[in-house]
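Try this one yourself first.
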């Protein structure tokens, strides 16, 4: 009897439920062109595609950066660019960096970053992003990296150090 009641409730709820809309998978795309300038350093991002980073805001606005360091500098202190209109972390819809090995866009929050390597970006000393820890470790060993960091481990103090402001 209980099974019949559960079955009837299930059928009734399906019959009266509103249409369910599933969001399509949102691909990671670096959709810049030759006129796109990086927000922080105002340099054309297409010239160095290996370093491009992007933040898409919940209002649909796309912000590009010449390097991961520049993007994280904005992410940690968006108020310095008050005209962009970011009020909280909830305004960030998608954050991407370019995997240094594959040259593919990846989720910045899930990436691994090599600090202190011998490679520099157009913005100077930088954090080199990789989609997996093994690639970051191999690169770090080849290029004299000092540490491998997860996104959450990157602090404003580290960005200031990389920018020569400490």
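Now uncover the answer:
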């Amino acid at each position: 009897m209980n099974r019949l009641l559960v079955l009837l409730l299930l059928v009734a709820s399906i019959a009266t439920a509103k249409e369910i809309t599933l969001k399509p998978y949102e691909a990671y795309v670096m959709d810049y062109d030759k006129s796109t300038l990086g927000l922080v350093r105002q340099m054309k991002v297409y010239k160095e595609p290996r370093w491009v980073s992007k933040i898409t805001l919940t209002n649909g606005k796309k912000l590009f950066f010449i390097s991961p360091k520049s993007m994280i500098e904005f992410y940690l202190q968006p108020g310095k660019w008050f005209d962009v209109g970011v009020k909280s972390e909830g305004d960030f819809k998608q954050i991407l960096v370019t995997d240094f090995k594959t040259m593919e866009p990846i989720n910045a929050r899930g990436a691994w970053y090599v600090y202190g390597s011998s490679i520099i970006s157009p913005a100077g000393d930088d954090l080199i992003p990789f989609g997996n820890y093994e690639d970051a470790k191999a690169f770090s060993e080849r290029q004299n990296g000092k540490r491998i960091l997860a996104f959450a481990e990157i602090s404003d103090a580290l960005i200031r150090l990389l920018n020569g402001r400490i």
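Discussion: The chain has four helices and nine strands. The beta strands are 53-57, 62-65, 92-98, 105-107, 112-115, 120-121, 124-125, 128-130, 147-150.
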